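Much of our argument rests on the idea that a fold can be written as discrete symbols. Part of our work consisted of pairing the sequence of a single chain with a tokenised description of its backbone. The amino acid sequence and the backbone structure tokens for this protein are reproduced below.
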Amino acid sequence: MELIIYLMIGAIAGFTAGLFGVGGGLIIVPILYIVFTQMHYDPSIIMHMALGTSLATIIVTSISSVSAHHKKGAVLWNVFRNLAPGLVLGAFLGAGIADYLSGQGLQLLIGFFAIWVAFKMFRGANTPVNPEHHLPSVPMQLVAGGGIGIASAIFGIGGGSLTVPYLNKHGVVMQKAVATSAACGLPIAIAGALGFMWFGKQANVMVPNTVGYVHIYAFLGISIMSFITAKFGAKVAHMLSPAMLKKCFSGLLTVVGSYFIYQGLSQFGLA
């Protein structure tokens, strides 16, 4: 039964990854939080395990999603190369920062972050990308990659919620921004997952079937299905208008953000 649950999570997360270029983390993290809570794991590490396991599964969803986008020629590989070093360093550092934060603190951070990004995306949903805007210098892209990597690891996501708006702001159309974001999710996921494994080992996590903060059974079940369904999400992304993608993206983020804010406040007795 446990494996079936993880397979179902993977099917939903994979489709979302391909559709929005978010790596599926915004779906995986809240669902894993609920599943791990029902399995009565230590409440102090449930959020950390959800984040670490989410990043591990994004390794697989990113490979599947970016392959579909690459076939359509939508991935800007030169931009990926500029961002990648910063993404790797930032993601590992972000895992270390998350290790020092409490579960409740992480929930509130993720919640408010998701709501903020949703507002930004929805506000600009009908605003066409200005092709006269260009990406900054390579060093500045490297710095941006570092910031995206840190935040993505803390939030257990593939970076789409930051990479997509960043690329849109600098003149990259939505479809290419989503495709390039999917590629950027791979170095974030690898470095972030390794970071959560390492810091979880140092914290002596005593949960069966885990390596640090990564739950192996959840990783396998989610990865199997997400690899299959991410390709379908990518195909749908190329059928929708940029404005529609932005509105759907912001709607998803609003739901996730509201959920985590409620959970975080309720544990402080404020909701």
